[in-house]
Write a structure and sequence with these properties.
The complex is a heterodimer of chains A (146) and B (402).
Chain A (H helix, E strand, L loop, with lengths): L2 H24 L3 H34 L5 H24 L3 H33 L4 H13 L1
Chain B lengths: L7 H31 L6 H24 L4 H27 L5 H29 L7 H30 L7 H23 L6 H28 L8 H26 L7 H40 L12 H4 L2 H23 L1 H44 L1
Helix pairs in contact in B: 1-2, 1-3, 1-9, 2-3, 3-4, 4-5, 4-6, 5-6, 5-7, 5-9, 6-7, 7-8, 8-9, 8-11, 9-11, 9-12, 11-12
The chains are: A mainly alpha (146), B mainly alpha (402).
Chain lengths: 146, 402
């Protein structure tokens, strides 16, 4: 499994948690929604954290590009975090419309972000980053344990 | 107007729809997708879009009026304007696609779609010039090639390449099968080449057989794509009713119907209503898919622009906390989208009936079509108005807090 494969797989795993939470809100099951939403945000924060703290710096060091794609990706991560916060707020207030509307916005934001990563950035990373993919996979799982 | 395919009014209406609605939306969407999918940033994007948009708008009006008012000189005006707009677009997009590092099949499919657009436009310009000068007496034979390349090449290939990306991602479904993604675009394109030989050299031996073989293969591709999409959507992980998904389902059902109404009468030598294929392909398939995607793309782009503007104001230090940017459903509500969808579907059903029983359904179909399109325009204009109001509000808050 190379960097692209396991990071893209993690995108898919996060998507499943996202739709689980969304389905629960639509069905009015707020307890299940809250549980799935927390699991989703945890999974997302791990993914974003691994990128921001390990993958992006390695990419920047290897290529010398500091203000290019990784800067854009970090900015989009912040936009996603704002939406997580707004979804959490809607969940607390049990406001179905606001949750679903914000979730839809996040979905498009997140997916267009994932497209850029999976179709361009991860490809470059898989080719250019010096350590082999297993070491990255290990870093990814260790991040989870912290 | 519907007595036969060549009435000037029908040609004008068809081109208002294919150029005015389909091409405009598809060109805009491709420009949006360049940075997102291909990692290619278009420098001075507003200037570039204006350079393409303005000649196209004027060109579309000219060609429509040329038919409606029977002014042959206007065809020449349209040829210049449309020729410039499309050529500039194709050259710029093709060079970005060639330079892109994207490895997804969408890239090669977009290039094939652009190539089909190039041939469609080239043939279209030639046919339009013929109205003024009568260069080539048999030009009308090329009309079938012009519309096959336009609808099955440019439109179908682009919609398919975009569907490979947006259906799995936005509806959270499985991916299209790898073999399907890898080969479908190429098979469709090769079939179109096979099909076109017979239009160019109608009398040549064996080309009739090649045309039949290509048509069968092409029909197979259309059916496989439509059925795969419907099946993916059935197994999607999101359970919410989603207006864009409804549009996709109707578009794919239309694609199945159009394929069957084309291939069965062709193979059996039956007559079918002459306008049925056009209605199902242009309105049922292409306009429906695009209309549905608009409900995702337009609110998102508005949200993104508001959110970026909001961040800029905060970064300038004009206020401490970030204001809340309204989410997508506040920009275009699901209810408004669903009602417009119902009107759109009704107009499609009435239009299909009008191709079979024009005397009864012609006027109701036209009326319903107008209602559905006005409703869409209303929803989109409301979203733009919402954007302008929010931008003004943000600026006022920034001024009062600075």
């Amino acid at each position: 499994m190379n960097i692209k494969e396991f990071m893209a797989q993690d995108h898919k795993d996060c998507d499943r948690l996202f739709s689980k939470a969304e389905n629960a809100v639509a069905g009015g099951d707020w307890a299940a929604a809250s549980q799935s939403f927390n699991a989703f945000v945890d999974a997302m924060e791990r993914h974003l954290g691994v990128e921001e703290e390990a993958l992006f710096p390695a990419f920047e060091q290897e290529t010398g590009i500091l203000t290019g794609p990784t800067e854009m990706m970090r900015m989009e991560h912040q936009q996603m975090r704002t939406l997580f916060a707004e979804m959490g707020e809607a969940l607390q207030q049990k406001n179905t419309d606001d949750y679903l509307g914000t979730a839809e916005t996040l979905l498009i934001m997140m997916q267009q972000h994932n497209m850029k990563e999976e179709q361009i950035l991860y490809n470059i990373m898989s080719q250019r980053l010096p350590e082999d993919a297993n070491q990255w996979l290990e870093k990814f799982h260790n991040w989870e344990k912290r | 107007m519907v007595s036969h395919r060549w009435t000037p009014e029908l040609l004008a209406v068809t081109h208002f729809l294919t150029l005015g609605f389909l091409a405009m939306s598809m060109l805009g969407a491709m420009m949006q997708l360049m940075p997102v999918l291909m990692g290619m940033v278009i420098p001075r994007p507003v200037l570039f879009s204006n350079l393409i948009h303005l000649p196209l708008v004027l060109g579309i009006i000219s060609i429509g009026l040329a038919w409606l008012l029977q002014i042959n000189q206007l065809f020449m005006v349209a040829v210049v304007l449309l020729g410039f707009g499309f050529t500039a677009f194709i050259i710029v997009m093709a060079q970005y696609l060639f330079r892109s590092k994207n490895t997804h099949v969408t890239r090669s499919m977009m290039l094939l779609a652009l190539l089909a657009l190039l041939f469609t436009v080239g043939l279209g310009l030639f046919l339009a010039m013929n109205y003024s000068w009568q260069i080539y007496p048999l030009a009308r034979l090329l009309t079938n090639l012009h519309l096959s390349l336009g609808l099955l090449g440019w439109v179908f290939l682009l919609v398919m390449s975009v569907a490979y990306q947006v259906i799995p991602m936005f509806q959270i479904t499985d991916e299209y099968p790898a073999l399907h993604q890898r080969w479908m675009g190429w098979v469709v394109f090769i079939c179109l080449i096979g099909l076109s030989q017979n239009y160019i050299w109608p009398q040549v031996w064996l080309l009739e057989e090649l045309k039949t073989l290509s048509s069968i293969l092409l029909a197979g591709c259309l059916l496989i794509f439509a059925i795969s999409t419907i099946r993916l959507l059935q197994k999607r992980r999101r359970q919410l009713p989603d207006v864009t998904m409804r549009f996709w389902q109707v578009a794919m059902s239309s694609l199945i119907l159009v394929t069957l109404s084309w291939i069965i009468p062709t193979l059996m030598n039956w007559d079918s209503p002459i306008l049925l294929l056009g209605v199902l392909m242009i309105h049922g398939f292409a306009m429906t898919a695009i209309n549905g995607m608009m409900y995702k793309i337009i609110p998102f782009i508005i949200w993104l622009h508001l959110s970026t503007h909001n961040k800029k104001l905060r970064d300038k230090g004009t206020r401490e906390a970030q204001l809340k940017v309204p989410h997508m459903r506040k920009i275009i509500s699901e209810t408004a989208g669903f009602w417009q969808f119902r009107c759109h579907l009704s107009s499609l059903i009435l239009l299909v009936m009008a191709t079979i029983w024009p005397l009864w359904f012609y006027y109701p179909a036209a009326l319903m079509f107008a209602v559905a399109q006005f409703f869409l325009l209303f929803n989109l204009l409301k979203a733009v108005r919402f954007y302008n109001i929010k931008i003004a509000e943000f600026s006022v808050i920034a001024q009062t807090t600075s």
